[in-house]
Amino acid sequence: MFPALRHWLIAGQAAFVLSLAAISSRPIPFSFVRPMTAAMLLWVVGLTYFLVRSVIRSPGRPLSSMIAHCREERATIARAFEWALILGLAVALHGWAKTMIPHVTSYWADPLLANLDHAIFGRDAWRLFRSELLGPVYAKAYVCWFFITFGVMGVLAFSKRDHSTLFNGFLVAWIGGGTVGQYVLPSAGPMFFERIGHGPRFEQLLATNDPSYGRVADYLWKFHEAGGAGLGTGISAMPSMHVAMAVWTALAARALWKPLTIPAIAYALVIYGASVSSGWHYATDGLVGLLVTLGAYRLCAAWSDRSVSQRAAPLASQVA
Fold first, then answer.
1. Distance between CA 105 and CA 82 in Å, rounded?
2. pLDDT in tens, the chain (320 residues)
3. Euclidean distance between CA atoms 93 and 298, whole angstroms
């Protein structure tokens, strides 16, 4: 029934981004094309697997089997399509908001977050997370989060079970923690600490970093200086959405198949370690990302339970 929670969330995100455009002289820099195309491709891949599976089950009548299966599961297919549209739009709007940070405010929170890390850990946190053994694992895992998280989303979307609580939790974390939350403590992270004018505090981190991180940082900085936007551009550290989405993936993995919980948690811990050791984030960025995701999921679970109770109350009264 419209408007559902997901519709309110995406509408609120759009209103927030448009309000940023209203107070900034810079036009909205990003387009819908890439995020929406990626979301639709994800849906097409899921639909293809869905149809191929029906053919395998009835090899003697492939076409009639596909048609019958589509009719039988049209609600699942339509729901998956809607989620693909909403998630693609959410990613696009987030990209707009992220690239507009330096045009609306400044990265004033970096010294505060760096000092907070030092107060908690007794030193700059990246030094504690560096590991020659895990370094190569960090570098590879950190660039795989998109495929892992959105691949899990594809599986959930085409499941016969309704995983709206998980998807709504993703949207609350992505929009509330990411799109809006990044403006609470706007920061660029240790990777860009000196480039944004806060001094050479993390000079040794950059000098000993994996070269792949430096290439990505140069790519992001090029667009930052030019005032443009491209795929994955925008600089924002607090909260860490890499960690937030890795935690969400662990929750989703548990919902899909409980034995996946342990490896999914291990994956989230690797993402957290990579985010700090590489200098993309302060340690507190990931901790906030963790809390945002867990809080979002609990909030949406409570919302779902309340909705079920409200729908059940009239039926109970009729039976009584």
1. 34
2. 456 888 999 999 999 998 988 888 776 666 667 777 778 887 888 778 777 776 676 666 666 666 776 777 778 888 888 888 888 889 888 988 898 898 899 999 999 999 999 999 999 999 998 888 888 888 888 888 778 888 888 888 888 788 889 999 999 999 999 999 999 999 999 999 999 999 999 999 999 998 888 898 999 899 888 776 666 788 999 999 999 999 999 999 999 889 999 999 999 999 999 999 999 999 999 999 999 999 999 999 988 777 655 555 554 455 55
3. 24
Triad 216, 229, 293: Cα angle to 5°: 70
Amino acid at 183: Y
* CA nearest neighbour of 172 among 20, 33, 40, 294: 294
Residue with tokens 């395998």: 56
What distance in Å separates the CA atoms of residue 98 and residue 105, rounded to the nearest whole number? 11
Q: What b/e readout covers 125-135, taking b as 16+ CB neighbours within 10 angstroms?
A: bbeebbeeeeb
181 DSSP 8-state letter:
G
Predicted TM-score (pTM) of this structure: 0.87
Whole-number Å distance between alpha carbons of 215 and 188: 16
Structure tokens at 248: 């969400």
H helix intervals, 143-199: 145-157, 164-171
CA distance 181 to 132: 33
